[in-house]
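Researcher: Following up on the earlier apo prediction. This time include the ligand. It's pyridoxal-5'-phosphate, with the SMILES given after the sequence.
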Amino acid sequence: MDKKIYVTKPTPVEVETIKSMVGDVWASGQYTNGGQFHQNLEKALSETLKAPYFSLFNNGTIALMIAIKALDLKGEVIVTPFTFPATVTSIDWCGLTPVFCDIDPDTMCIDPAKIESLITDKTSAIMGVHVYGIPCDVDAIQKIADKHNLKVIYDAAHAFLSHIDGKPISDFGDASMFSFHATKIFQTLEGGGISFKHESVKKKAELLKNFGLVDGIANSSGINAKMNEVQAAVGLATLDVLKEEKQKRQKVSDAYDDFFKDIDGIETFSSLSNSLQYYPIRVNKKKFGMSRDGIRDELEKQGIFARKYFYPLCSDIEDFKNHPSAKRENLPVASEVTENVLCLPFYGDLLGEDLGRILSCLESLK
Ligand SMILES: *Cc1c(COP(=O)(O)O)cnc(C)c1O
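Model: Understood. Below is the ligand-bound prediction.
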């Protein structure tokens, strides 16, 4: 059988570059605790993302938990069920209750029109996800937050370099979390970052990520959420090749767009997102003549592994499904979308033969 094609592949960096940078970390004798590489990456990303109060973490999930703690959230957080589990589990692991809100049928992000009816006297925040890098309706969400005195956190794990009318995505909300997991377009093996609106909150997060230590003495309850020097070095090397990867992904995205433009029953989203993180399609079974699951299975027979991001809904997770907001009848749009969305393989190296293989397999399903 042909070589397997997966949904993503790490943004390629020359192995010699990595060897040399890890060699430099070794030579420095400092492996973690905010060394030179950490400082350089934090500065570089702060500039790249146009995020003045930016902080690095050892992964995106812990980063979300730190955002929750640094903003001193309590009680309930209103969140989308159509996301990777980390969004919701970070709320739960901080001892708060996730309250599920339905999504907008066009953007697949949390639907502002459905938020207010979920607000109680326990609600402390709204957590939206810029899913596939498609921005949430940030203005409507902020309006609701201001009216009810709530904080806003964005899971921007898919939204590295997304922008809204030229404004960087990190301009919106009290905190935006970026994931630098190996499957993300900008990666540090494992890793994450947060852009904070206020410097004071960034300062608090900096304490929390290092055991709550002030001058070596624990001042508050903290945790270990520090990015190490090798992670930071990989990040610096990846930043250097990001532009090239984005150019290649743009070509892959254009080729998919071109292929799907005349196909009935397949909806694409590239015009809504500029992060080039995923290439989702939404399948209308009646019009296309085959279901999302059917397409996935046929691709898999050819060694092409598309992924059902995000299925099932987080509201179906055993630990969350008994909350009244998790009921399917309260989440009609999310319940439909999760059955019909498929993320196709998407990375720069697909250009050429592999992309051809995927397109001819899809062609045969029409
Ligand atoms: C990748 C991802 C995360 C988790 O990030 P990690 O860095 O792997 O902890 C959170 N939310 C979403 C939507 C993600 O895709």
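Model: The CA atoms of residues 74 and 246 lie 39 Å apart.
Researcher: Noted. I'll compare it with the apo version next.
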